[in-house]
Every structure is written in C-alpha cells, then in structure tokens.
Amino acid sequence: MRASWESFLALADNPALARAKKYYHLGWMRIEMSPVGPAHAEDKHLIAQVVGIFAFTRGICLKGYINLTLRKTGLQEAQPIWKTSPRAPREPTVPSI
Q1: Is 48 helix (H, G, I), strand (E, B) or coil?
Q2: Which secondary structure element, helix H or strand E, spans residue 10, and what is its range?
Q3: Domain span including residue 27
Q4: 76 CB neighbour count, 10 Å cutoff
Q5: Is 0.85 topped by the overall pTM?
Q6: C or N: which end of the chain has fewer Cβ atoms within 10 Å?
Q7: For 1-97, where are the E strands, in sequence order?
C-alpha cells in the first residue's frame, strides 16, 4: 500500500508488529505476518547446509545472514536476495517490492 516513510517507521517500530516482516520501497510498504513453523525452519536449515557444503567443496566464499533486513532511510527497507559466485560481486540484490 502507498505510505510515507514516516508512516512506515511508525508501524515498523510498533512492538505489536515486532515479529512481522516489513518492507518499504519508493513510497510503497508491505507488512507480512507470516509465522515460521518447525517444518519450514528445518527445510531452510537443510538447504543452507547443502549450499554451504557445495560452496566449501568448490572453494566459494559465503557469508551467512539469518533474517537480515537492510534499511536505506527514507527510501526503502527489504530483505535482500544474496548472489554469490566466483565472478559476481558480493553485494545484495534487493527485490522489487
């Protein structure tokens, strides 16, 4: 939904929404109340281990972050998708919201 940065911050700092996922991009905000259950968490952990083993055997350097949110004040807040390859820069790609 359309929102100002100030409106987004008011909701983002609301203790009742502490566990929500919050995104803001160029005047648009999104708040998701999606709980992560044990099955999802277990799958996520397994995938991270498989990717880690693959990267280790190929000599690929990885950085790991869990539930990272990046904020560019007044512009956007999002959870990035990380791209890592021998030729790719190690910078986040923020998905369009």
Answers
A1: helix
A2: helix 5-12
A3: 5-93
A4: 19
A5: no
A6: N
A7: 21-25, 28-32, 70-72, 76-78, 81-82, 92-93
